[in-house]
Amino acid sequence: MTVPDALASLAGALAAEEESLLACVHCGFCLPACPTYVRLGDEADSPRGRLYLMRAVVEGRLSPDSPALHTHLDRCLGCRACEPVCPSGVPYGHLLERGRAVVRSHRSPPGSVRLLLAVLARPLVARAAWALARWARATRLPALAARVLPRRWGVSAAMLASSAPARLPVRGGSVGSAARRGGPAPDDAPPERGRVAMLRGCVQEGLFGRVNRATERTLGVNGYQVVPVSGQGCCGALHAHAGDLEGARALARRNVAAFGASSVDFVCVNAAGCGVAMREYGELLAGDPSEPQAREVAARVRDVSHLLAEAGPRPGAVVEARVAWDPPCHLLHAQGEDRAPLQVLDAIPGLARRPLFRASECCGGAGLYGLTHAELGGHIGDDKVGAIRASGADVVVTANPGCHMQIGGTLLLGGGGPSVVHLVELLDESYRRAGLVPDPPKRGRDRG
Ligand code: SF4
Ligand code: SF4
C-alpha cells in the first residue's frame, strides 16, 4: 500500500465516526470548559475546533498528515470536560482516540512515550522497571533532584518522589489513643455486598501498591469479598490516549479474558483513568471476537468510590485534617461520579472540607501530557496548585495516580505544601484508628 493509500484508509476509519462528528452543532457551550482553549484562546485548541479538523479530514478537505491536525489533537488533554456540557452528546473522548490513531500512523510520538508504552505492555519488564523506580524513590535522590535541578529537568524526579506514601498531618490526638473514637465496634459484621475483583493496574500497583491494599481493606470493611484475579495487566488507557489503539486492544483482550473468567459481581477500579478505559472496552473491541465478553466485563466495572458509597459507607474514627477534594477528570466528567467520593469523605469524622477554586478543571497531568507538553501541562498544574494553596487545605485528596503525581510533583517543585493522598488511603486511615483494619507493617521492602 502506498503512503497516500494508507492515509486514505485511515481517513476512512475516521469516516466511520462521521455521524458522531456531525452531531456537533457548533454551539460553543464546551469552549469555557476546555482548559486548553481557556489558556490559549485559539479556536483550533477548543473541542469544537478539534472536531472541525477531524470532520475536514473525513470530508477530504484536510489531509490526515496535516500538521494542524497533529498539533491541535496532540495538545488536547483528553480531560473530557467538554462532554458533560455538550447539549448534543458528542462522544468527544471516543472521537479523540480515533483521531489520534490517524495522527499516530503518520507521526510517531516522542521516544520517551514509545518506550513507556512498550514497557507497560510487557508485564515482566514493567515489574522490573517499577522495582527500580521504587528503589530510586526510597533513596530520596529524586526528591533532592526535584529541589535542586532546573524545573524542566526536575519534573520527572518530582513526580516519582511525590508517589511516595504521604505523611498525614493530624491534629487532636495520635493514632490508637484519643483519636480512637466514633465509628462502629470492630466486631460489628457488615452485610454481605457481593464478590469483587480488583484491577491492580500498572502504575497503580507499581508505585501505589499501598492504595491497592487500602482498597482491599476498605471494601472488606464494607462487606465486599475481594477475590484475586490472575492474568490481568495494564488496562491500555495510556496506549489508547496516545493513539495506539492496537496496543490498547491487545491489553484489553487480556483483561477481558482474565476478568471474564472470574465469577464476580463487580470489577473494582481505583484509578479513574483505568476505570474509564475498562468501561469502554466494548467500544474499543467492537467487531472483535471478544466484543460480547468485553461488553459484559465493562458492564461490571465500578470505581471504588461508587462501591463504597453503595455500602454507606461504614463510618470510621476521627481524622482531623483540612482536606481539598480534587476530582479526577475521568471520574467526574467521564464516569459522572460526583457524589460518591463526597459520601466516602463524609464517612470520616473530623475532616474539614475546603472548597477548591475550579476543582472540576484538569490538573494538567492527563496521562502522558507531562512528557509531550511539559510547558502547557506545567502551566495548568501551577494553576491547580495555586488553588490548592489558596484553599488552606493540608491534605489534597484525589483518586488517580496521574493526578496524584502531577499535583504532588508540582507542589514539590514549588517548595512543598499539602500532602497528597488517594481517597481510600484516607478512609483506610480512619478505619485503622477505629480498629476496623490492622496497622500496616512497620518494616519491609517498599512496595509502594
Ligand atoms: S478533552 Fe479537555 S482539553 Fe480536550 S477538547 Fe475536551 S475539554 Fe478541551
Ligand atoms: S458543546 Fe457539543 S455541540 Fe456545542 S460546539 Fe461543543 S461539541 Fe459541538
SS summary, helix count: 24
User: Roughly how many Å is the radius of gyration?
Assistant: 22 Å
**Major pleated sheet:** 4 strands, parallel
Name the bound molecules.
Answer: iron/sulfur cluster
Strand order within the widest sheet? 2-1-3-4
What oligomeric state do the depicted chains represent? single chain
Low-confidence stretches: 1-7, 172-182
Q: Portion of residues in helices? A: 40-55%
Structure explained in plain terms:
This protein is an alpha/beta fold. It contains 24 helices and eight strands. Helix 23 links the parallel strand 7 and strand 8. Helix 10 (151-161) crosses helix 23 (401-413) and helix 12 crosses helix 24 (423-433). The longest helix is centred in the C-terminal third of the chain and has 18 residues, at 374-391. Bound molecules: iron/sulfur cluster (2 copies). One iron/sulfur cluster binds at residues 24-30, 47-48, 51, 82, 86, 88, 90.
Considering the chains and any ligands shown, give keywords for the structure.
single chain; 448 residues; 24 helices
